[in-house]
Write a structure and sequence with these properties.
By secondary structure, the chain is mainly alpha-helical. Helix content is about 70%, strand content about 0%. It contains 17 helices and 3 strands. β1 and β2 form a beta hairpin. The termini are far apart.
Length: about 425
């Protein structure tokens, strides 16, 4: 029965991708594409691997599959159906139009059709900030996950995201990569340094955001180009993961293949422990973890002990284990707000993204920047990080709040000072 449900889900999600992404034999990578790929990768693929009985000589994998095999079949079926209902809520929300909201609120942000970044106001201070951030992380550069993560790594990730936001805003305002080269070069240098610390998912998300921008605002991409790009990204990401842990001598085709599978398998550690310990009867609950996570936005100088009041999924479900840090999306949302609460949240996110997408041609650079960046988050961080990291930090703060602040500051400068790039 589990395999039958999985095959059904695979077919439906594949048809959804084709319907919303394939136009005249060319691909448009949008929020539905990213969300669908992320759902298949993190929610369906691990269960498929476990059900097929594929074995890998890996201590973490052995622990995960042993826990999985101890879970009753009915619970696995329940998980698949419940997670699929959350997926369909997102798709349904994406297809719901809210015209009045666009007229009164969101289109207002689209009035600023061009971004004029002052070199003295933006570039030099941000470059100096980047140098300071690199200095703070100097002991962790080019060591991947071989050492304990730097407490400043979050700031480094935020910095790289800020630089990418500026690049994306300029591109969406009509600047080319060539005329925007100082920002592109700056981003490339700091992105490589972040990669050396093990922050590959942040950089990959930026690459996905660029592909979203290109296919939606420049020209559709051929299926062949998408296939070549996808294969290249899989090889590079897989190889990079091996190099940072084992060095160049550890790179092999099997290693690259397993490196790609490791991500959803290791993330599913939290899922199988949750399924084993939970009754899956949580229909709706007050989202304590989600709401407490917004406290993380308060600077530590104003709230030095904020970590003590921010809740995690393990405060609600102490039997959940996540030794490698990642938290499966179903564990995060089902434990915190229940099935109905999760469906409502997924519907609202789909509603917001769907209306951003439909109005992309008439929106300004700010809304379109937010659309590209949030869509890219829906492929990875949304499904593998806790709600505090995925929704609050990566989506709200990095993909919405930072672009908004940059746009407001830029508009203020242009309006009152007349500064030009």
């Amino acid at each position: 029965m589990i395999c039958f449900i999985e095959i059904g889900i695979l077919l439906i999600v594949t048809l959804v991708i084709i319907k919303y992404s394939l136009k005249e034999r060319k691909m448009i990578i949008n929020h539905i594409t990213c969300f669908s790929i992320g759902y298949l990768y993190y929610a369906i693929l691990p269960v498929l691997i476990f059900e097929l009985g594929i074995f890998f000589d890996d201590s973490v994998y052995i622990k995960v599959i042993n826990i999985y095999n101890s879970i009753p079949e009915k619970k696995i079926e329940g998980y698949l159906l419940m997670s699929f209902s959350m997926y369909m809520a997102f798709i349904l929300g994406s297809n719901t139009k809210i015209r009045f909201l666009w007229k009164k609120r969101i289109l207002k942000q689209g009035n600023y059709t061009t971004i004029k970044c002052s070199e003295t106001v933006y570039y030099i201070p941000l470059l100096l900030l980047g140098i300071i951030v690199v200095w703070m992380n100097r002991s962790y550069l080019f060591k991947g996950y071989a050492v304990e993560s730097s407490s400043w790594k979050g700031m480094f990730s935020a910095y790289v995201t800020i630089i990418f936001s500026v690049v994306l805003m300029c591109l969406l305002s009509g600047y080319s990569l060539r005329t925007n080269k100082k920002w592109v070069i700056t981003y490339f240098v700091f992105a490589v340094l972040l990669l050396s610390m093990g922050g590959r998912l942040y950089v990959v998300s930026n690459i996905v955001a660029f592909i979203i921008y290109y296919s939606n605002f420049r020209k559709k991409i051929s299926i062949r180009s998408i296939a070549i790009t996808l294969i290249a990204m899989i090889i590079i990401i897989g190889a990079w993961g091996i190099v940072r842990l084992q060095g160049l001598e550890g790179v092999s085709l099997f290693g690259i293949f397993y490196g790609i599978l490791q991500e959803p398998i290791y993330t599913s550690y939290s899922l199988v422990t949750y399924l084993k310990g939970s009754t899956l009867s949580n229909m709706i609950a007050f989202p304590k973890v989600l709401l407490s996570s917004f406290i993380s936005l308060i600077p530590s100088v104003f709230f030095p002990n904020k970590e003590k009041v921010i809740l995690s999924v393990q405060d609600i479900a102490p039997y959940v284990e996540k030794p490698l840090g990642a938290t499966n999306f179903f564990t995060s949302y089902n434990a915190d707000m229940g099935l109905i609460g999760s469906i409502i949240l997924f519907y609202m996110i789909g509603l917001y993204m769907g209306n951003l997408y439909r109005k992309k041609e008439s929106s300004g650079y700010l809304n379109n920047t937010i659309y590209c960046m949030v869509s890219s988050c829906l492929m990875f961080t949304f499904f593998r990080d806790s709600v505090g990291i995925s929704l609050v930090k990566n989506i709200f703060e990095f993909s919405v709040l930072i672009p908004f602040i940059l746009a407001v500051v830029n508009t203020t400068i242009v309006k009152h000072k007349g500064l030009m790039l």
